[in-house]
């Protein structure tokens, strides 16, 4: 669950050439990153990653990115799928790899006046060649951390928690002890707690 409306979260996802995205790309071993816009709902996205393994060629990914709203604009789907494109041909310096991913955004009820978006993310990657399993797993973990980064990017937990605390403050201030009936069990719990104070005071 992300503390933002669908359009805002999806825009962050689709901003593949933003400074933030390019910085993370380099930190993750990225060598090249390009985007060709086809229309207002489709791009061709090209990336190259160094696996940081001696004698292993960098991996090249070329994806068609398509996004689409559902009929009532309560869900938005973004799909990355392998594609061949003349602007990003295969070359001997890289080994062509494969990735298919789908990101679905669903609008949820607001919490404390803050829009909530449920994000579901699936991804399947084939790095090609004879890659050790530990390398595949390492790459997979890095990719799946994407949702954590998205959650942190829009996190408004402090604001939400502050509103909850404010509601509790008002509830406590308005509470009239004499107008509220406490059960016998509740009275015993409070009395027992006060007994502990008396015991410690005696020490």
Automatic annotation (TrEMBL):
Database matches in PROSITE patterns: START
A UniProt-annotated Pfam family: START
Boundaries of every START domain copy: 1-135
InterPro entries: START-like_dom_sf, START_lipid-bd_dom
Name recorded for this polypeptide: START domain-containing protein
Annotated organism of origin: Tetraparma gracilis
Taxonomic lineage from the root: Eukaryota, Sar, Stramenopiles, Ochrophyta, Bolidophyceae
